[in-house]
Write a structure and sequence with these properties.
Elements (H helix, E strand, L loop, with lengths): L4 H9 L5 E2 L1 H10 L8 E8 L11 E5 L10 E4 L4 H8 L3 E2 L4 H6 L7 E4 L4 H4 L3 H4 L17 H10 L1 E5 L5 E8 L4 H17 L10 E8 L5 E3 L6
Parallel strand pairs: 1-10, 4-5, 4-6
Antiparallel strand pairs: 2-8, 2-9, 3-7, 9-10
Helix pairs in contact: 2-8, 3-7
Length: 229
């Protein structure tokens, strides 16, 4: 693959085999040539887990202290008094009878769907549409709940969902390049603390094998896990 001039310039300043303290790495990343848009900063954490085993699955949510820099469109599927609670909390779309038929017809123009438990019988029928897009509400990640207000506010504030992939890697956005090194460091540390918190009991030996950060248009930098503890 032929890389652009800016990427080659950044690559000359980066050695992905050297572990860097998180603060130093983010300052180096901040010095790379900038794209014409506000790049997303991604964190990739390789874990010593086998996700094919249920007792080694790593999945959950974490609220980024400084948000993600993304405007999140939240749909709440519910009926009755919880509708007003969702609206008061800032949900963009609220209802059931209006949105369930739209989803059945293929509509998924939303970032997060939150539902009350009584709606899961109807939403379950839409799994083939919502599942592949990562939109199916799930009690394990807090999107099936009676505390609608809390769920909506967290989604709007920058709650992200993480899930280890088949290779044992968790990919998560930790903000925008415009945040600057200090705010990005707080977000990266929040993600790291959460992954340590949910370490499966079945995992033996080293749990976090490697951590990398990168911008949308930048090379990656390797982080020293000790600087995140």
């Amino acid at each position: 693959m032929k890389r652009g001039k800016n990427y080659r310039t950044a690559r000359a300043r980066a050695d992905k085999n050297t572990e860097l303290p998180v603060g130093d790495a983010l300052r180096i990343l901040d010095s790379f040539p900038k794209a014409k848009f506000d790049e997303t900063i991604d964190c990739a954490v390789r874990l010593n887990v086998n996700p094919r085993h249920a007792d080694q699955m790593v999945r959950g949510t974490v609220v980024m202290p400084n948000g993600t820099g993304k405007t999140v469109r939240v749909l709440v599927i519910t009926r009755g008094p919880k509708e007003q609670e969702a609206k008061n909390a800032g949900a963009d779309m609220v209802g059931a009878d209006e949105y369930l038929p739209k989803i059945k017809d293929g509509w998924t123009d939303v970032d997060v769907i939150i539902a009350t438990p009584d709606m899961m019988g109807e939403l379950g029928k839409l799994g083939r549409i919502l599942g592949p897009r990562g939109l199916m509400p799930n009690p394990k990640v807090g999107t099936v709940t009676m505390d609608i207000a809390k769920a909506v506010k967290e989604a709007k504030a920058g709650r992200i969902e993480y899930r280890v992939d088949k290779a044992g890697i968790v990919h998560a956005p930790v903000g925008k390049r415009s945040f600057g090194p200090e705010k990005l460091e707080e977000n990266v540390k929040a993600l790291y603390r959460e992954l340590i918190r949910v370490k499966p009991a079945a995992v033996k030996g080293i749990y976090v094998k490697s951590i990398f950060i990168s911008g949308t248009m930048t090379p990656s930098l390797r982080l020293d896990a000790n600087s995140l503890a």
